[in-house]
Amino acid sequence: MKKFLATVLSFAMLLGAGLMQVSALGSNEGYPYLFETFETEESLNGLNKPDASRATVSIAKGGVNGSGGSLQVHQKNKGFFDMTYACEGLAPAKGQKIHMSAWVKLNSEILDQFNGKNCNVFSFIFHGTGIVTNAGNRTDVTVGEAYSSTGWKQYDITNVLVKDQWVKVEKDIEWEDAMSIGSGASIGSIQLKTVSLRVTGEAGIQALADPDATVLDYQIDDFIFEYPDSDRMGVNTGTAGTYVINDDYDTSSVTGELDGRSDDCSPGYRQVLSPVVTDGKGTHGKNFADSTFSNVYLKMGHLYKVSGWFRYDGIEGDEGLYGDTAKIRQIIYATKRDPEDKNSFTSGYPSVYPAVIPKGQWTKVEYYYYYEYQAYDNNNFHVGFRICPEKAEEGTYATDDPAGAGTFGFDKLQVFDLGVIGNGDMEISGDGLKVFKNIGEVTQTFPGWTANNATAEVSTDTASGEGQSMKMTSTGNYGDMKTSATFEQGKLYRISFKAKTEGLEENAEVPISLIFDRYTNKDPGTTEVYKVPNFEYMVGPESFDNAKTEWTISNDWKEFSGWYKVNFPRIEGKEDASIANLVPRRPMLYFRVNKSTNPEGTVLYLDDFKVEEMGNSNLMDDLKNGLDADVADISATGTAVPGSEISLSYTYVPKYSEEENKAATVIKAYSVLPGGEIRNYGTFAPDQAFTVPSCAAGQDITFEIIPISTAGLIGNRATFTVGAATDYIVYDAAAGKVTAGCSGASATILYASYNGGQLTSFAVTDAVFEEGKFEETVPAEFSPGEGDTVKVMMWKDLTNCTPICAYAR
User: Fold this and answer.
1) Least crowded by CB within 10 Å, which of 184, 341, 410, 724?
2) Residue among 113, 276, 130 nearest 202 (CA)
């Protein structure tokens, strides 16, 4: 059964004709937006129905990890065929992390390639509508005028499909909010319409290894599209995050050979040979080795962990011009900068130089990069890495064209996005860490936190008793620890943290303030459209939340949370400016204790600081309702015997006054197999009973409740497990098999069929149970024939007239 969850803050759900209509259930980062287990024929309702001449789809018995069903596809056409689901109204924000996965089994043998293209490929494909500006390729639209168009975005997973084996295909992406519309043009501001699954690319039956075969046969199971748990509504803390670059070059071709690999486990690398050119400067090498990721963007206010292996093997025809080392250069390809702000980028490509590496060997480089401050135009810029050889004059490094061709190597290059407030749990710390921000190296005990008239110490004093916190001690007036945060106009955010101080009298409390500092003293140029003050009290004496509550801090740990709605007033005359997500420059967050300037000696312990984006809304009160509601007092009636029913009951505990919408609440059923894999059984509503499928025989069944409020918002999920039944019997008439479980070591199984109450067929077998389980083929002498009733019973022995359990059809 399919469930489609959409953010009530942003999405309008109305599906087109012929597609499965689904409800807007709210926002929840952990539960899939699309979830399909293909257990029953109902699963086909969500698919666009294919033309029978191209393919037939059905629900096959049996799926991945022993689940009850899967999608069976018999593709008959040459070229591509897509299994397409509607997801109309889904509009992920740029930078949103998305995880997609499915299980695939090939039942046909396929070629490696057809017409020079890879056949062993599985694709996730999005289609949607968006906005593009006419650059002159359309005559019916004025040049420079924006218009709506339809585009697509495709993600391929290659060389993973294996005949007769279930294989998991998955892809993690960061949404770019751009789709191709052909001819090199693209659209933005995407509204998704459909997501499709494709096998063998554009080959279709031409991928078949057997030239006489006419059907490409494969199965798909457990398709999931979700915002992953590690990224709560686009914000990460601590070590949770997402790779924006993760390239081991293991499938890249290399020219020439470098001695060895970057490490013992690396089968591949990227080798770069800078070419030799002849121009007005003479004959020389062209540029230095550059590994640029033009579609990978770093975001202002985010903390990144960067690592990679680099190698420099010299310049041809050196003649003593170059030394025996090279410097690694990380470049931000920024073309728009704030000319009035010395803390923004003013000239050239802003760069940091995290390491010097020796010539002729692989060297691993690791560091943190804190992309501090916010340019006024809110641009995100792509990143590249360059290897710059040392010049003959020791300590100087080349930035111009080399004298000859150079040989350079890159491997295992990773850029890991730790998000906004990327070290909010204070778990990343240490004096030996290399930390850079914007254009230079800095000293930060906690990467992502900048000291201002203060010191930061690692403390094991935490609210939970585990991990570590940050202890700030002010060394002068206005002492604080600042971190960068990027807020968007019109968005609602929840801010939470844990804090304490020291030195107060017993039971004493003093106010604590959180300040949003926004650099606006200088004229930001013609693109500025918002008029904002230099700073704003977000909590504390001038609390921003509706309750206007003054927060207080004591010598004991307390947890704080509140709401912040971004509403920067526009400058007069610029109410209709086209810049959609403009925010003030250099936004910083920091704390004040006791309505003071944090004079020397002020102490603040801080931990688990989070800024969570909750979406768009004009009704803050309504948004509060239902957030983080809980489920309590869960109980179940029924047992995990195949064919029987299990019903759940629970208490909905709202955080505010909101009530539960039971028609929208979802319950998911699954088993965790001994190897850790998940066997999904689908979803059902609270007022429905769950029928235990045959494939759940002998398994614990876990029920995950996803509560939905009447405002359409999702609360905290909760699980309840019903233990595996010890005594059960399942008769599979189609397969001619019986599966049974028993608490005893042995039992007798009786087969009987009846017609009009008269016994027509009978058989008896003895069952010996190994680890409580038994399976056998139905005895040949048992022939149900035309009988209208079949009974398969398990008895302790034939002298006992009470059966342990029975199956009746």
Assistant:
1) 184
2) 113
